[in-house]
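cache lookup: miss for this entity combination. No prior model stored, computing from scratch. Input as submitted by user K.M.:
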Amino acid sequence: MSGVHPAWLGGLGGGAGLGDDVVLTRDPLCGLEAEAYTIARSGGVTTVVAADEAGLMYGSFHALRLDGELAAQTHRPFVARRMVQHWDNVFVHPVMGQVERGYSGGSLFWEDGALTDDLDRVGDYARLLASVGINAVSLNNVNVHAGEARLLTDRLSEVAALAARFRQYHIRVYLSVSFAAPMVLGGLDTADPADERVKAWWAAATQRVYATIPDFGGYVVKADSEGQPGPFAYGRTHADGANVLAAALAPFGGEVYWRAFVYNHRQDWRDRSTDRARAAYDHFTPLDGEFAANVVLQVKHGPIDFQPREPVSPVLLSMPRTSLAVEFQATQEYTGQQRHVCYLPPMWSSVLSTVAGAVDAVVTVSNAGDDRYWTNHPLAQANLYAAGRLAWDPALDPIALLDEWIGLTFPPAAAGVVHELMRDSWAVYEGYTSPLGVGFMVHPGDHYGPDVDGYEYSRWGTYHFADRDGVGVDRTRATGTGFTGQYPQPLADEYESLDTCPDELLLFFHHVPYTHVLHSGKTVIQHIYDTHFQGAAAVAEMVGRWAALPPETVGEDLHARVADRLREQVRSANEWRDQINTYFHRKSGIPDAQGRRIY
Amino acid sequence: MSGVHPAWLGGLGGGAGLGDDVVLTRDPLCGLEAEAYTIARSGGVTTVVAADEAGLMYGSFHALRLDGELAAQTHRPFVARRMVQHWDNVFVHPVMGQVERGYSGGSLFWEDGALTDDLDRVGDYARLLASVGINAVSLNNVNVHAGEARLLTDRLSEVAALAARFRQYHIRVYLSVSFAAPMVLGGLDTADPADERVKAWWAAATQRVYATIPDFGGYVVKADSEGQPGPFAYGRTHADGANVLAAALAPFGGEVYWRAFVYNHRQDWRDRSTDRARAAYDHFTPLDGEFAANVVLQVKHGPIDFQPREPVSPVLLSMPRTSLAVEFQATQEYTGQQRHVCYLPPMWSSVLSTVAGAVDAVVTVSNAGDDRYWTNHPLAQANLYAAGRLAWDPALDPIALLDEWIGLTFPPAAAGVVHELMRDSWAVYEGYTSPLGVGFMVHPGDHYGPDVDGYEYSRWGTYHFADRDGVGVDRTRATGTGFTGQYPQPLADEYESLDTCPDELLLFFHHVPYTHVLHSGKTVIQHIYDTHFQGAAAVAEMVGRWAALPPETVGEDLHARVADRLREQVRSANEWRDQINTYFHRKSGIPDAQGRRIY
């Protein structure tokens, strides 16, 4: 609970909020699938029927959200796999800290190399996740360092201790493992997936895990990615690699989440023919149908890396014979790092509307830590809340989910202000940061704040190619990298043509002159100026709106925390506005049509 | 010795190279000043006469350099204070490491929080420094962290152990101290220099130092600089601050080296009226005459920060009633970090030709560490060598010094190649890096490799203001920041006028169009292209030249080390060439007149 309005966390078993007027009936013969439930409320009495304990639990949490009478409704999860992944390190990493890309204090699970001694907090977190429909959690960073690798073997008891807490809420735990584990932990001289000793090592290691944790979920693997080991070293495919782990897990019902985030991170910026956006598709689609049934290929929602605006990854539309997970990032690495208000579910909802039919799992990288508000910025909780709810039902309206979260978290007197602050906050953030889908104008390394050329001459494959005449990346089939050709129709043609490419993705797909006229009727350069002035102005308004809310309405501490973060958001938004505008003014030489101040 | 040809380090006391045919005569009544000596060689017998032991030592080192007969010559140091400063940390700093801006392995003095257990290596280093005329060394980083502050008090015995080794070679040791030491170490609630308790604390602490180390040299202080504490916090001047420490040291003959590196490091890039180049002059010249006699104001040779090309600092020409030290940087922070060959003494010599008459001390930041070649790049030793020799005699020709070092270090068969590699290496480095004196187009933080806009929108006050029309910083009196007005005549007018401003400093003083024609007859943009193609090509030639030298000529290990560093220099020079050329081509739109490849 820890200081935040606990309504949406609360209740189950403890009785708070869930009183005698709730009748829970477990009926294995009721005809409902696993985790599903039927709920009704009539005459003040709520009834929940489910075939299993998990269904009863989800129905109970639903009961907590109910307001008023309800005719019987059946709810079932859209996908069976609804996972939150943690990028937590056991040992504080010298660069990345305790939680990689974490902005909410330390890890909930580990502290300075040891298991947390606050397992009750882990229990609270498990309830929090369960209450929004999450049923799987991975405990450690996908970049698996040497110390963390040992969670799989001699530190397994710590994983078991965490699993015990999550199990209470029907959540299975997963471990990120190193593809090189047979060498790092097993003392073998190879991790070649075709080597019988390697297969035997994985089988034995996995058997030991299940002997300790019978409902263990499985493995998460980042292989051949940003320096992590993988099957390429042995001339094997990623299907070869994933299937060895899958074979070890299959007897126990476990699964491998195998990340598709594979690209050349040592690219030469001079080489304009290589396109990082193409990489996942080029690597993985030829393997469609070759992955074992218990491999889930985990694909970031966009082709690059969690930018504020990307098209959907074509991999998600192109592998019908492979189990797919779409990966979202609640931790706001590129979207304000929980110092900026940025309610992301409208973005995720838009992705899900395209890919929901193609995916078997929804994965969200957690934004929670040992911060007293869980997420540093109290309003960032809403991202985690809605991530779970959308995984359960992708058709939910993200703004309705926002109001649902607000209703469970804040008193009615604060609801309007919070709603106004958050509703358009993703669009506001996009307005004052990288324009028109071009992305990656962030400060290298920490990814916070503007640095327009920060990645322009780097090895990371994230360029904007701005010169004195224009800006953007030509990814067309006609004249560019051909990335548009990775999409099925009609998307391939829609993105290919300047006539049909949506404005907000223009610079992702095309290199255009600053004087190019958008569908909105504005030139690119004027759009850049306008959105940056407007975005920063909108943040300034947010500050005033929050300041007008009496602190006691939400609690003085929470009020002060949000006010403090808003101050930083204003400062940062102004810095973004001025750097972006100055950069493009210096390059284009074109003045702002409204004559506003550009430095 | 440690693996490098030891001729110029060798001999004194050990007999190597200094045989029975050398007659040393100490004659207090000979009329020579401290440290001076008369040397002659006739009929194979060398005679050295001096009034003190130090003079005999310097004369003996001179004897080791002698080749052939010599009529009697008297040599005396140009300045009495010839110091090498170390930026060594006792504890490994999480960002800066064991040695801040050190590129030669760990510290010679400290290792992971403890005094080195290799004091013999310290003795070798002391001999090395003495052999080139250095008589003072500061042991720790000017950024004094909490652990390092204690060298002044409870870790004084470690300083004494080092002092014992340096004393053998007539070198006095200094400590960098924190201005806040009375608070950090003394438990006072203030470090106000006007507070009697503060004065008393410094007096007592200093007395304890001298009780342990009677020939202790004094303190080095970085105050009110990049976050270090200083007198500004109490509304006091830097003279007030320095004089308190000076008063504590005066009874024992000690001195304060007080750094003039004071500027606003939280500048707003939007504010074009503030000019970091002005800062030292604006802060310190009003205090001329107010510093105690045993304060030496230590001024970086240029107004910014050790860039490959800067004008001389006007502070060095404007404080006749203050003892001044000019500060050079042998550690190659901005000049290739001992991975690039960059022989810097031609730059230092040019500075000294302007300021030698005005300075009382020459300070060089050391480039040595526990690397087996002392300086990582074996050829970087020459910078330390010549730094000492120029401090002794600023009129020495830097290329003659290069040959002197080569002759003492390498066999004749290698001399030509080494000379060719090094002679113009500063000009080559300047060619492929920042053009025309504009500076600071380096990667932020580590300062290695190109990042043209890396500091352009930062708080550090180091901008180039490149836009689609032109580049450079207007520091004129007529239209700019007025910095040129800080120079005495004729320099003030020379820099002010485009007609007389030297090409190599053009962008330091002026913002000009890319089409501006230099005195060389080239346009600015064509100069940028040409120097970058030529600079990178020159490095490629260096590689071939070195490869053609048979490894056994210089030893295979040293040959391989230099070859390895040259490979990196080629890679880096090409990266500089391409990033700079592409950046300015994208901005200016002007093609290379020779049609070479610009990406």
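stored under new cache key. Residues 81-396 of chain B form a domain with the TIM Barrel fold (CATH 3.20.20.80).
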